[in-house]
Write a structure and sequence with these properties.
mainly alpha
Length: 203
């Protein structure tokens, strides 16, 4: 199934994203594994709870667990190549966001759920793991930062939910578009409207 392809891509990208954050925070190998796992699988677990799947469904992803372990182990044992790619942390996160947003939307759509549920699945699958990762690392989650993040997950959900993209090549193109928009929003610091309270402004 097409959504399985995006599941693999998202798992690898978010596992690496978790490893990068763990290394930046100087975590030991257990910290690397834990942060990598929650980043790769946290969003899917939250999505499953939302759409009524049992929590045990998470443990049916044996192949993905193996892939995540291999990726994280290689990144930990051979960090030389990864160190030169630390500046690409946002890129790995963007790949995971795009792949999991599309995968979550496809998953919800395959269950015959309405557009609202498809959008929620896209957002939670694409951002849930990153939120848990940042909270565990003591960081302000990317979702709540000034540069645009959630909007691109919504874009993926809408495109899938409205049947604008359906074939594998269309979905891969959608993933490239989301990654590009996410990286542009980081590069040029695009922002959604936001306001501060008077107390925040004074401080």
């Amino acid at each position: 199934m097409t959504w399985e392809l995006f599941n693999v891509i998202g798992t690898i990208a978010f596992a690496l994203s978790g490893v990068i954050v763990a290394m930046e925070e100087d975590y030991d190998i257990m910290g690397v594994y834990i942060l990598g796992f929650v980043t790769a699988f946290g969003g899917g677990a939250v999505r499953n709870l939302l759409i009524g799947l049992p929590v045990t469904a998470l443990w049916e992803q044996g192949t993905l667990f193996t892939i995540a372990i291999i990726v994280m182990t290689l990144a930990f044992l051979f960090p030389i190549w990864l160190n030169s790619w630390l500046k690409w942390g946002h890129f790995f996160d963007a790949v995971g966001l795009a792949a999991f947003a599309i995968q979550g939307a496809l998953f919800a759509k395959s269950m015959g759920l309405p557009l609202s549920a498809i959008l929620a699945a896209a957002v939670l699958t694409g951002t849930g793991g990153g939120i848990i990762r940042d909270v565990l690392a003591g960081r302000k989650p990317l979702v709540f930062r000034s540069d645009i993040y959630v909007l691109w997950a919504i874009l993926g959900g809408l495109t899938v939910g409205l049947n604008i993209a359906g074939t594998t090549w269309e979905l891969l193109l959608l993933m490239v578009v989301i990654i590009t928009l996410r990286m542009l929003s980081v590069q040029f610091k695009w922002q959604l409207p936001h306001k501060r309270t008077e107390r925040q402004a004074e401080s």
